[in-house]
Amino acid sequence: MKCKTCGQKATVNLRQHRLGLCTDHFLEWMLTQTARFIKKYRMFGPDEKVLVAVSGGKDSLSLWDILTRLGYQADGLYLGLGIGDEQNPYSAESHRLAQQFADQRGLKLQVVDIRETHGQTIPQLAESVHRGQGRPCSVCGVAKRHEMNRIARDLGYDVLATGHNLDDEAAVLFGNTLGWQADLLPRQAPVLAGHDGLARKVKPLCRFYEKDMAAYAILRGIEYIYEECPFSVGSTSIYYKELLNRLESDRPGAKLAFYVKFLEARSVGLFAAQQAEVSQPLFTCPTCGQPTAHEGQCSFCRMVLR
Amino acid sequence: MTVKLVLRGKEYEVKSGMTLLDSLRRADILPEGVLAIREGQMIVEDEILREGETIRLVAVISGG
């Protein structure tokens, strides 16, 4: 296979686009496409301060790399979740890699350790609350959303960017569609507008396949955490991704079409009725001051203060 | 007449002379879930595998 741009040997095959590219043209293509999606979905402007949530994984570190190469003012945020042990120091290693990435490029990394800030690690929190019984990922999700929003708001960032790729988005969409979760469908978008104390959230990588993000990280020489979070082994999201990849293998472009056609349907108002329902005014948590869907303490404060 | 595919420490032996895509399918590895590296260089699915070589496969799916 040859690079469509220069005719040299291709190192990446983007089957969903019927496009082979050499290393240089693939890396260039990733930049121009990301810039295109940031503009298309009106994610943020050149003068806005971006906070990139980095986990030490390929997607978030690549996102930070792309945004800085595009010239955006992007700092990183690492949340220390306290996952792992001496044999598999997952959080310690992911922190080391995120810090190394920042140091090598002279970038600013904001670090928040959940245990230092709130007294318990994610595994400890998961064991102590009903929500976490057998589902530590649920507790982790609540904690990450809360802390990312808190830091973005308190430190004056205009927008919070996450490294969700198309496979992440398609897997969530697949799960929500399988369960006909009408209330969740309108909440999935490349941009979630900021309001009532909620930071604007954006997903600049939402149109890139996970495989292409891994290729970007490797070809850019980004050292990322290769091992999985120990709690994600056997997770539903990975199972859905594998199912979708079986479909993709037989029908290249199927994943992309599934997600993009959903966004098109959403933009023409297919979920307008559900959108109106989820756009109800939010309450303010009396403990932390963050917005919450229900009156009283937010989910996070109910977990950590019980 | 074999080629070694290595994925997360597990070795798969496939015949040389096949394309990477065919060898992945023979080994029951989903092509969408891996990147292939030959001598430090990424290769695409139509590459013909050579006798005696080892191809490192990088898993790309992460979750949580």
Which properties best describe this structure?
heterodimer; A: 306 residues; alpha/beta; Rossmann fold; 6-stranded mixed sheet; two-stranded antiparallel ribbon; 12 helices; 10 strands; 46% helix; 12% strand; globular; B: 64 residues; mainly beta; Ubiquitin-like (UB roll); 5-stranded mixed sheet; 1 helix; 5 strands; 11% helix; 41% strand
Tally of individual domains of chain A: 1
- What is the residue-averaged pLDDT of chain A? 94
Q: Identify the strand order in the major beta sheet of chain A.
A: 5-4-3-6-8-7
Number of strands of chain B: 5
Number of separate strands of chain A: 10
Distance between the termini of chain B: 40 Å
The CATH class of chain A is Alpha Beta
How would you classify the helix and strand content of chain A by structural class?
A: alpha/beta
By CATH's scheme, which homologous superfamily of chain A applies?
HUPs
- What proportion strand of chain B? 35-45%
The biggest beta sheet of chain A is recorded as: 6 strands, mixed
Strand order of the largest sheet of chain B: 2-1-5-3-4
Spell the H/E element sequence of chain A.
Answer: EEHEHEHEHHHEHEEHHHHEEH
Number of helices of chain B: 1
Q: How many DSSP H or I helices of chain A? A: 12
Estimated structural class of chain B: mainly beta
Give the N-to-C terminal Cα separation of chain A.
59 Å
What can you tell me about this protein's structure?
The complex is a heterodimer of chains A (306) and B (64). Chain A is of the alpha/beta class and 306 residues long. Chain A has helices at 23-40, 58-69, 90-105, 114-118, 122-128, 136-154, 166-178, 210-219, 236-250, 254-267, 272-278, 299-304, and strands at residues 12-14, 19-21, 49-53, 73-80, 109-113, 159-161, 191-192, 200-202, 283-284, 291-292. In chain A, helix 2 crosses helix 8. Chain B has one domain: Ubiquitin-like (UB roll) (Roll). Chain B has a 5-stranded mixed sheet, covered by helices on one side. By secondary structure, chain B is mainly β. Chain B has one helix at residues 20-26; strands spanning 2-7, 10-15, 34-38, 41-43, 54-59. Helices cover 11% and strands 41% of the residues of chain B. The A-B interface holds A 1, 10-13, 20, 23, 57-59, 137, 140, 167, 171, 209-211, 213-215, 218-219, 226, 228-229, 231-232, 235, 237-238, 241-242, 245-246, 248-249 and B 30-35, 37, 41-46, 58-64.
